[in-house]
């Protein structure tokens, strides 16, 4: 049974001023917020585009959509439960030829972290689910009780860059023979028992394994790859693509795609990071990196100049 949604979001949007500045929002524009979350960015964008413009807000998570629908009433925001990869189909449906800007703020929200039934928090006694859209795919607890030891080790290594991935996978497989893992807390404790304490690191030893499982369960990198290929075509010439990432696997992909996509020009040579003040008030923002690119005003000219 689905839980009632708390209509107030606890998520603080990251680098709002920087996003607004780089998207250069004007009244009347159409802007896509591909990762609606708690609706913080959408709210700010909606005020700037005004009633002659609109924000198209997408999220895979049905509870984020339900919350946004309540919170953004009265603002020019069109909300839909969808992946940002489905933007071309959505634009087709609403007969929109192209948009002035697209924002992706990757990863998960504080609302998802705070929901004990989702398994995003290490201390949660709820099921280790980790899906953004819990109506599709399999929850993480089912996968770690089914996949082979090698598969688990490889995915923790690849998506978490965890040096102790083999040890963790061995322990998961040994543990599940007597008692299958079910909760986030159980997995976090198992991982901590496999990873030596580091004096240098301040992050929880379970962080990399949870990140890996979340990326795997939601096919986050596959969807990001697809988005980086198709989103430039959804922009009007001169339109802007702004992407906030939270770890190096995502940031590397964004950096590379912006460099290589024939329709894009890089706006931010180096990633933009939050101010010291923002990092202090919102610790979650610490690892955020914003990269911005613009669709060429004249695609043909730019494709030619790149091939010379
Ligand atoms: C960091 S939060 C966004 C927070 C939002 N910018 C705000 O101001 O509250 C990321 C959101 O992206 C959503 N998400 C992740 N992958 C997605 C995808 N492929 N398509 C659409 N939404 C996605 C998650 O469900 C989550 O709600």
How would you summarize the topology of this molecule?
Layout: H1 16-23, E1 30-33, H2 40-49, E2 54-59, H3 62-71, E3 77-81, H4 87-93, E4 99-105, H5 110-114, H6 140-146, H7 149-160, H8 165-178, H9 184-192, H10 207-218, H11 220-234, E5 235-245, H12 248-260, E6 264-266, H13 276-281, E7 289-295, H14 299-307
Parallel strand pairs: 1-2, 1-4, 2-3, 4-5
Antiparallel strand pairs: 5-7, 6-7
Helix pairs in contact: 7-8, 7-10, 11-12
This protein binds S-adenosylmethionine.
Characterise the protein shown here.
The protein has a 7-stranded mixed β-sheet, with helices on both faces. The protein has 308 residues and is α/β, with parallel strands linked by helices. The model is unreliable at 300-308 (pLDDT under 50). The termini are far apart. The protein has 14 helices and 7 strands. α7 (149-160) packs across α8 (165-178) and α7 (149-160) packs across α10. The radius of gyration is 20 Å and the shape is globular. The structure holds S-adenosylmethionine (SAM). Residues 11, 13, 34-35, 37-41, 58-61, 64, 83-84, 105, 107-109, 132, 223 line the site of S-adenosylmethionine.
Q: What is the percentage of strand-forming residues? A: 5-15%
The tally of domains stands at 2
The biggest beta sheet is recorded as:
7 strands, mixed
The average pLDDT value, as a whole number, equals 93
Biggest sheet: strands side by side, in what order? Answer: 3-2-1-4-5-7-6
CATH class of the largest domain: Alpha Beta
| Tally of individual helices | 14
Number of strands: 7
Cα(first) to Cα(last) distance is 59 Å
- Please name the fourth-level CATH homologous superfamily of the largest domain: Vaccinia Virus protein VP39
Under the CATH scheme, which architecture of the largest domain would be assigned?
3-Layer(aba) Sandwich
Structural class by secondary-structure content:
alpha/beta
Percentage of helical residues? 40-55%
Spell the H/E element sequence.
Answer: HEHEHEHEHHHHHHHEHEHEH
Q: Which stretches are low in confidence, meaning pLDDT under 50 for 5 or more residues running?
A: 300-308
């Amino acid at each position: 049974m689905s839980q009632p949604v708390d209509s107030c979001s606890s998520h603080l949007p990251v680098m709002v001023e920087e996003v607004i500045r780089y998207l250069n929002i004007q009244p009347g524009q159409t802007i896509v917020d591909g990762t609606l979350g708690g609706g913080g960015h959408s709210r700010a964008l909606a005020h700037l585009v005004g009633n002659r413009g609109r924000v198209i807000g997408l999220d895979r998570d049905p509870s984020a959509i339900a919350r946004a629908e309540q919170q953004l009433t009265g603002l020019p925001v069109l909300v839909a439960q969808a992946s940002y990869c489905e933007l071309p189909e959505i634009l087709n449906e609403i007969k929109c030829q192209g948009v002035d800007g697209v924002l992706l703020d990757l990863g998960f929200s504080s609302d998802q972290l705070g929901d004990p039934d989702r398994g995003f928090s290490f201390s949660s006694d709820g099921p280790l689910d980790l899906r953004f859209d819990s109506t599709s795919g399999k929850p993480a607890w089912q996968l770690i009780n089914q996949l082979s030891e090698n598969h688990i080790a490889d995915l923790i290594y690849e998506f978490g860059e965890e040096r102790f991935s083999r040890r963790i996978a061995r322990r998961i497989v040994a543990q599940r023979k007597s008692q299958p893992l079910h909760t986030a807390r159980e997995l976090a404790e198992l991982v901590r028992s496999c990873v030596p304490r580091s004096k240098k690191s301040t992050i929880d030893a379970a962080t990399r394994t949870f990140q890996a499982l979340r990326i795997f369960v939601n096919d986050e990198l596959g969807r990001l790859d697809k988005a980086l290929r198709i989103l430039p075509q959804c922009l009007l010439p001169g339109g802007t693509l702004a992407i906030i990432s939270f770890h190096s696997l995502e940031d590397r992909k964004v950096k590379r795609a912006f460099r290589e996509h024939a329709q894009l020009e890089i706006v931010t040579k180096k990633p933009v990071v939050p101010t010291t003040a923002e990092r202090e008030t919102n610790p979650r923002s610490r690892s955020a990196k914003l990269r911005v690119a613009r669709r060429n005003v004249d695609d043909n000219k730019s494709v030619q100049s790149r091939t010379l």
